[in-house]
Amino acid sequence: MALINRNILNFICLSIAIMSSYHHFAQNIVANHNFVDINKCTEHNATCAPEAWLLASPNIPLHKNGEVGIVVLNSSAPNIRQYLQTELLMEMEANKEYKISIRFRADDCIINSIGVKLSDAFVCLEKDQLLSNASFDFSKQLSNIKKKKQRKWMELDYIYKAQGGEKFILIGCFNSDKSQERSFKKNPLPYKNYYYFFDKIDVIPTYLDTLPSESEYVREHLYNFNYRHSFCRYTPYQKIESIITDTILAIEDTPQIDSIILGDVLFDFNSDSLKKESKDEILLRINTIQIKTLSTVNVYGYTDSIGNDQYNIELSQKRADAVKQFLIDLGVPKEIISSIGMGSKNPIADNKTEEGRSKNRRIELIFKYH
Known about the structure:
- The protein is α+β, with helices and mostly antiparallel strands and about 375 residues long.
- It has two domains: about 25-245, Galactose-binding domain-like (Jelly Rolls), CATH 2.60.120; about 255-370, CATH 3.30.1330.60.
- Helix content is about 25%, strand content about 30%.
- The strands form five sheets. A five-stranded antiparallel beta sheet has the order 3-6-12-9-10, with no helix packed on it. A five-stranded antiparallel beta sheet has the order 4-5-14-7-11, with helices on one face. Strands 15-18-16-17 form a four-stranded mixed beta sheet.
- The radius of gyration is 23 Å and the shape is globular.
């Protein structure tokens, strides 16, 4: 009889734990809080980023197996930062408390602070750069964790009292290089980006049992946004009654965008000279581009992860420049073309296999029209 009672008690405890877990998940005002839903980016025509999440600058976060990586330091360029951001599923209410939990780990570099900024505005930066005025950071909690443990997954919590109207959350390092304390696993390499990785971000209203029905429309709005290069096109969710009119206006004001991805067959190994057959392929792929109505052309060069970062950046820049020159020779005005060497950033396949590395060695062309 005691055994049966003990089994019943265990079942009750387990049920309570499951219900409690579900309760908190249902309250979460962060969409895709564990990064498992993957977005198929319009410009890449490929899965390339977690649904509902963007960076605050024009890059795509490192994303693989439910982890997202952002730059917290560049060893040679000052104050290079990336910030994850998303729109919350509901606005925060003044003087209400929210439990914010973040699960993350350091990589090759440990810094003294990861912060959170909550605001009423979507952030659109021209490049990876430092932001200030975090709403709070985890520096005190991090100071009590041994550095060796900080390279493993850790979850930190904070109770935030809202000012009211906060709609967006940004996560990253808000300390400048001068005020940032850091230590490296190995000697720092020049021109290297150092990352922190995240696999769960929760924001739980402590005063709510269920979220308002409007939250599901916000989630749908976030999931329907599929642009990553032109992330500044994102507009915050608006209440249902104004969506149709505002969407029509947004479509009318938004420039058309085309994208083309060209594989590594363009170049010989370690070369930045376009092969003849590559030129024929480019001509075939861009024959539908209306040159006269182009406003900008961005040429992004990518490599695989073999070799050091600086070499890969230089090689990808030379390859992007070669494609830029070919476009100029075709009649595209040079003043509207920018070429950017991305090195091994933003892989679209697994660098551990030759097939994956081949896909990562690519040129991406983004055409924007008037």
